[in-house]
User: Fold these one by one.
Assistant:
Number 1:
Amino acid sequence: MVSDVELFDSPLIERNGDTTQEKLKKGKPLLDPVHIHVKDAAAESVFALLLNIFREHLAEKTADWERLEHGAHGGDIAARELLEATLQHRWDVLQAWAQRLSIDIDCLQFFSIYLARPFRQQAARRLWDETQATCWQEGYCPVCGHSPVLGRLIGSPGQRQLWCCCCNTFWSFPRIACPFCKNQSQDQLGYLTVNEFASHRIYVCDTCRRYLKTRVCADESSKKDGWDYDRDHFSTVALDSIALREGYIAEPVWLAHHERAVCQ
Ligand SMILES: [Zn+2]
Ligand SMILES: [Zn+2]
């Protein structure tokens, strides 16, 4: 869904703000969505495309997708407004739409995360590259500030990469530390294994009770770009159920780091 077509109507970088390095060193994600405007036509075309994909692959929620489509056709909800509210983390606005259109809020949030994905991904391509990696020490995404949903251990001993599904960015993070609470005490950190998923582990933290699905890649050459994190994420949903059953907590995908203190 991501092309090189320009998706934004405004610059991605504030003129008088911190430089990229300053932001990263302060733990501030690079994409500041407050003043960002997306192109109407781009928002509408991604919205329509996504509705078709969701209708086909998440048919059990057909009634919600139909209500969303009717809302858009009837002028009750506009693709660009939904997208900008999502980029700006204005969840109260989404809540109001969900109530007015009788759409399940979880469905609307899930839809909106993927509606925003090509836009965040285009922003990520422009704002972030591997040369900046040494400036970023955090467990949340350096571009959009969301928590990782998947990790990879590459080589032996494994170098760890974390992946953000909101903007498709990956970054390095210490192997023995929790990305969610930064706990480094080894007796509070560990991993679960599941026979049917021999290439994966579920890394867990007994301090914050968060978990992270992790793909183990012994081959160093898999470090290069192009790893299909989405495929890995969706093909391991069974691991999420196992982690939850073991009493661990799924960090909400839609929750950015700066919102966590407010919502917890
Ligand atoms: Zn991100
Ligand atoms: Zn933790």
Number 2:
Amino acid sequence: MNLHTYAKLHTHSKRGIVKKHPHDHDPKVNLRTCTMSKTVVLVTGGTGLVGKGIEAVVGRENNTGESWFFAGSKDGDLRDGVACRALFERVKPTHVIHLAAKVGGLYNNMKHNVQFYRENTQINDHVMECSKDFKVQKLVSIMSTCIFPNKITYPIDETMLHKGPPHDSNSGYSYAKRMIDVMSRAYNQQYGCNFTTVIPTNIYGPHDNFNLQEGHVIPGLMHKCMLAKKNGTDFVVWGSGTPLRQFIYSEDLAELIVWVMRSYDSCDPIILSVGEEEECSIADVARNIAKAFDFKGNLVFDTDKADGQFKKTASNAKLKKLNPSYKFTTIEEGLSKTVKWFENNFDTCRK
Ligand SMILES: NC(=O)c1ccc[n+]([C@@H]2O[C@H](COP(=O)([O-])OP(=O)(O)OC[C@H]3O[C@@H](n4cnc5c(N)ncnc54)[C@H](OP(=O)(O)O)[C@@H]3O)[C@@H](O)[C@H]2O)c1
């Protein structure tokens, strides 16, 4: 049986995730009772932007001998150590891709640094300790380029993570995320665990959070542009539009994370990003979004609003050396696909 069938058919019940077997009369079949594969991958944060990207990517593959389990917070609140252990008991993963986190945009981070620090630290602590206790063969956890030092030379590379304090705006999130690297190394050193980390740049794609207050820049701009088109108003971008960012399409990142899980064996982090030459301004992103929506009104920059870090250019030299043939989706294509998804799923998406 193609084990990805399970991944595609998984559904939630009040008792947590269950998997539908196409030939079973009782659709609520526990994952462990129907999984025959040796490799069982638990994806924490499996219902979010990146998790959905991974689900799409592995759903397109055949006969990998892997069984995939995508867990959201309804399957266990990972801030709670008991709930985290119960999830591991249920899934008994051989591999874990750890994405679950309290995630938010600049303005949300600025207001809630304490919550971003505490909740992410709790989640990461529980997932790592369970991964050790359940003898997980490989744990891949995710950090972010926005946690690098504020004052730094560019391009950023993997060796610079702890060489100075992060930007004040998201210090809670950043320090909690940096501890993933510290603790992965400590688990490797003390217990011989195969824990590694990846560092993506800004991610966007289908299933993002399009909420105007809490979302990241791209989904926020898409929602604003849609409203501006609908209401015949200006498309107002917060800030000057000049900051530069490297954006990665969620399914590209998903492919690279799966590649890391299968092929990258080092506790040193690896930056997963498009090249430095692909860096683009927020203004360019906004123009591309306006084009994808066929928005004909005015594009306005509200310079009274904060810009955040001007740039945080990251080097993908290590990735290019280890995986030289990987081809990224262009920003125009990725934005256009995401706008289409947002329009088609407006009623049900996070917003
Ligand atoms: N988005 C970016 O631009 C970006 C950039 C760099 C790094 N990252 C990192 O990438 C990872 C995935 O981000 P994303 O953009 O996919 O986030 P997202 O769409 O907001 O998804 C977050 C995921 O975490 C789960 N989650 C949150 N709190 C939880 C809790 N207390 N217990 C269990 N699960 C919980 C959510 O579950 P429910 O939805 O079911 O509640 C959801 O599946 C995060 O670690 C983030 O820090 C993101």
Number 3:
Amino acid sequence: MRWTTETRYRMLLEINNAVVTRTNREDLFQALAKELRKHFAFDRMAINLYDAKSQSISYFAAADGVQPGGGLTRHSRPLADGAIARMVVQSRQPIIIDDLRRYTDLSSIGAMVEAGLNATMAFPMLVRSRILGSIHFSFRSAPEHISELTEVLTDVSRQVAIAVDNMMAYTELEKLNKNLEREKDFLLQSSDDYQQDEFFYTSAAMAGIMKTIQQAADTDATVLITGETGTGKDYLAHCIHNLSVRRSHLFVKTNCPALASSLFESELFGHAKGAFTGASDKRLGRFELAHGGTIFLDEIAELPISLQAKLLHILQDGQFERVGDSRPVQIDCRVIAATNKDLQEGIRAGTFREDLFYRLNIVSIHVPPLRERKEDIPLLMKQLTLIQAREMNRPEPIYSNRAIECLCGYPWPGNVRELKNLVKRLVILRAGDRISADDVEKILESARPQGQRVSDELASLRDSERQHIIKALAKTRGVLGGKRGAAQLLGLPRSTIQYRIKKLNIKPENYLSRFSSSKT
Ligand SMILES: Nc1ncnc2c1ncn2[C@@H]1O[C@H](COP(=O)(O)OP(=O)(O)O)[C@@H](O)[C@H]1O
Ligand SMILES: [Mg+2]
């Protein structure tokens, strides 16, 4: 008997001590080979990892000792190519061959014999009845006491299997962590535009909205924010998150139309490894990323109808399934949705689920366009100019009262976003200048988008303003000022009316005479 119970036990303990602290494969493998050599001589040692899904094997680390067929690759190869490994993996039993020359018709064994290896002992690596791969010892000539050695190495291979399993779990975790860190960085960066103290309003409408937000923030109620583009929906969603107890977790924004529809589901819900071509790793979806925090679904009207059902399911049960994985994932996140579309219209057209609408619309916030809260415009101009000038380190442009009036009369189809861009342009091009109403008109004219729709809208707005003033003038018989003047009738300062009359090319006397003599 070469190995007493005691020496076996000590050997296992020493192997264990040598490998537990290793954090990479090569280190672990080298430590193991060195430890085993103290107890018996072998000419080659190799560990194969088995991947059940692809039915392939790959080396765990560079093999130790003799290399049959030249070097060895780290690429995975079909299980069939490793004749002995295949036998071990399939039978889950040790394979002991004391004379390999009898099996040279198998190509991998032929290569071993050519390299001078004539005997081999291969063991399965099993952890909790899961097969991880195989461990191989090869010899130039068959070792002595082969049946006793088989017993010992069966114990050793159990130990090695645990070490290898731990190592794989460790690297998998590390990779997952790295992915998470990367996604977290990305998400934190992407919310840079949010500056907590840079939101301005004086209108009663916006004050009401801010009050609603404060009341709703600390509940987990779903919020639906509607309003034209550029009215501040993103900002308000952020604001809700930051006022809530969820603020230390992530605010995960997802732009519904920006994602290709085939990837949308896995982007939102994640996928299991191998769920589809290219899914080489398990991936967390945005819902899981938002766990504990808030998920913001922007432009919700564009969510494909098939995913609307899944979203409804999450909202109702707080759970969902990853793509390619049927186990439900429990989730705790607040949902905020936003859209510039009319969802009621979507419901009528059959592109939006009514039940989802009601489930989202627990707290509903409608942000009015800037032209319906004109009193915010002077304040926004002033404050945003201040901020921009400071940021660009330039003197502020100064606006005349007329210039501000003119800005208040503009319909702002792009709302605050458009106003902010105008301010940026002014700070760059007209730093420190006095800005007149004429300047403003010119700038608005040149900045106007080429789109037909917007210019049509503006044309008709101009037209109706013109008609409005003409009617007032006709009523007052061309009188502008005083108690019975057009200015009083329209509720505007006389100077503004004069300015608009000139701008819109209205001749008061003409309209007066036409109105009193003949109807047009
Ligand atoms: N009341 C406001 N005060 C200051 N900045 C605002 C205000 N409303 C909107 N903004 C700014 O206008 C831009 C557009 O707002 P955003 O929230 O993205 O609009 P939406 O999501 O409705 O299109 C952002 O840069 C935002 O900071
Ligand atoms: Mg937005």
